[in-house]
What we know:
Layout: H1 2-26, H2 29-57, H3 65-86, H4 93-108, H5 125-159, H6 164-168, H7 172-205, H8 213-234, H9 239-264
Helix pairs in contact: 1-2, 1-4, 2-3, 3-4, 3-5, 5-7, 5-9, 7-8, 7-9, 8-9
Amino acid sequence: xxxxxxxxxxxxxxxxxxxxxxxxxxxxxxxxxxxxxxxxxxxxxxxxxxxxxxxxxxxxxxxxxxxxxxxxxxxxxxxxxxxxxxxxxxxxxxxxxxxxxxxxxxxxxxxxxxxxxxxxxxxxxxxxxxxxxxxxxxxxxxxxxxxxxxxxxxxxxxxxxxxxxxxxxxxxxxxxxxxxxxxxxxxxxxxxxxxxxxxxxxxxxxxxxxxxxxxxxxxxxxxxxxxxxxxxxxxxxxxxxxxxxxxxxxxxxxxxxxxxxxxxxxxxxxxx
Length: 272
């Protein structure tokens, strides 16, 4: 039952992305409402799939690449919807929904085999640490999308080429505020993810920190975002520099998620 439900969910996400693309070009309000409704339905289907996967696996489904990337897409979906209900950012969904679909396609091609849990993963910290860490990536991905939108809008304004992006994207101030709001949620979650991971490491391996490649890159990512927030609040970093730093930080987060696992290995490589 689980995989057919996942396929239906993937198809719904792709339809939602297509609807957002149509809305981006047509700017028809009824298409925006349809795209949002389909995305909401996709998120609900995805929630059911995660529950079904939990029942099938007998443990929190965050222990292999398929489950991790799927949960990443789920977190990004609900993170976007939570922000949309609070902040009205024009055409934000047109940038977020393709990323969600890409993540779901990656999850499709990842192994779905349910394996017995290694001893280190048989812990109550698994759902706590793993879910917080991946949800942090979801909100950091939203900031990344906002940063890309900012750079596209700024580029058009600087060159005085008021094309499709100028008429369809929010103002630079609105995009900068969006970036700040996303980081205000993502960075505390990232911090909490590192803390819970350290506590779990103490329980599993007898040490809070072992300088494993994934631990090291998590810390590098944390320092990048900490530096960005420090500069924003102390010297007033805004606009282009903040957008670029957000993109760099998200690149580090993605290397932590994928690059470390498949290139550097280490004690966290079980997620491969």
